[in-house]
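[SOLVED] Predicted holo structure with guanosine-5'-triphosphate

Edit: marking solved, answer below. Original request kept for reference. I posted the sequence and ligand SMILES and asked for the 3D complex as structure tokens.
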Amino acid sequence: MCLQRSVTAKPFTTSAAAVIASGVVYVADTIVAPATPAGAGAVAIIRLSGPMALQIVRTIWRPLRPRVELRPHELVLGVVNDPETGANLDQAMAVVFPAPDSFTGEDVTELHCHGGRYIVRRILSVAVSHGARMAEPGEFSRRAFLNGKIDLAEAEAIADLVAARGEAALAQALANLSGDLSKSVNDLRAKVIAIRAHLEAEIDFADEDIALPSRHQMADEIERLIGDVARLHDSFTRGRLAREGVRVAIIGKPNVGKSSLMNALLGVDRAIVTAIPGTTRDTIEDTIELGGYPIILADTAGIRASGDEIERMGIARTWKSAADADLILATFDSSVPLDNEDLAAMQVCIGANIRPLTVAVLNKSDLPQTIDAAAIRNAGITAAVISVSALTGDGIGALRTELAAAVDSIVGEADGAGERIAISRERHRDDLAAALKALKLAHRSAISMMPPEIVAVDIGGAADALGRITGEVTGEDVLDAVFREFCIGK
Ligand SMILES: Nc1nc2c(ncn2[C@@H]2O[C@H](COP(=O)(O)OP(=O)(O)OP(=O)(O)O)[C@@H](O)[C@H]2O)c(=O)[nH]1
Ligand SMILES: [Mg+2]
């Protein structure tokens, strides 16, 4: 949960210094924010960063036992006090992280107080009245980036780690935070820059007899780079699935048991179930975890031609859910013969190539059976067929296994090379696409023996695009866009 700003920022008056880092100037005043979410809890952490971080804590907090000194990285129990009124506000632990060995690279202090909204608000307001300013969203991470503690991809990995909804997203974010993605991008960029150095040598020493790679060798190297950059670019789908989840739409004609199936998969009574066809009017979504991926299940309105206006609007949403889905559970009532309504619902799966990946579910296996897997195949669905009873729970385990296998196959499709590293952000994908485009142009120029100046322009474009991912090449606008997404206190 993102924290809301609860204390009005006060103009900063003391010892603000202009710091120039990574080509970006920032005013190194002292910022403060809760590092824990709003709401009641056992403990809340208030973090300060900047030149006055230590001084402010020394003013508003004193150790419980006299003459105990605050030593770096050691928590000390004490009392937070409002020096203006003399009132004690809370018992709290204080800890200091002197620059540069802190998250932001500046002096950082933390107060670990009791987790009450009012306590936190009071301590923040006392810190602000002693010279701190309420931090903007992502400002701590932005300072960590500007002071060279983390690169841009690692800063984004922190946000991904906090937002992770399953094992796959967690593993990916941790790997990226440990620098795996940055290393891989930096290695690619170093190779691109080496090619540019050769081109510059060719330009500068055109008349001299020095050994440089031939144009064909250069084109071969660019081709290898194109392959590597393309693989990283294509890992976006896997990264997206881990971060956002795999969308699964439960589709079928009315009354086949879609809502019952949704409830059985979730293990809770989430969707309304009745014997009246047309019960579900709106798409209902909920999430389970399978194979380390969040699975966003969507129960939909049964597809049929008749129905009132509300039902027709619901069915329009069903088509949208199907179009947005990564996977479709085509659901049938196996106790009655297939009919035109089933076939119409199946158009979602087989018609117009909306989604190729489908699992056919034959529900109501507890009743006398009228249709089987062969009937489904004859109707044109080639997907795996699973027999279940949403009522008794029979076959739900097998359906989960089949779903996990289908998720594996979607992820595997997105990850042909078995890469471990994955990008999860559109920003990375777009920069990699720009690098790819520039490398392809450079390749074409290299094999058509264009002058080195021409090849160098495209190679430079590829190096810049790769540099934008880690923030090696960046501007304030990119930083604003990246850190705007963060919560206050991150
Ligand atoms: N015997 C039996 N009945 C089931 C099973 N699953 C669902 N039903 C019954 O079938 C009826 C319809 O179930 P729903 O889950 O509401 O079906 P639906 O596909 O969501 O229907 P709509 O929302 O109208 O499209 C209810 O009476 C359920 O109790 C099953 O596995 N076995
Ligand atoms: Mg329903």
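OP edit: The radius of gyration is 29 Å. Thanks to everyone who chimed in.
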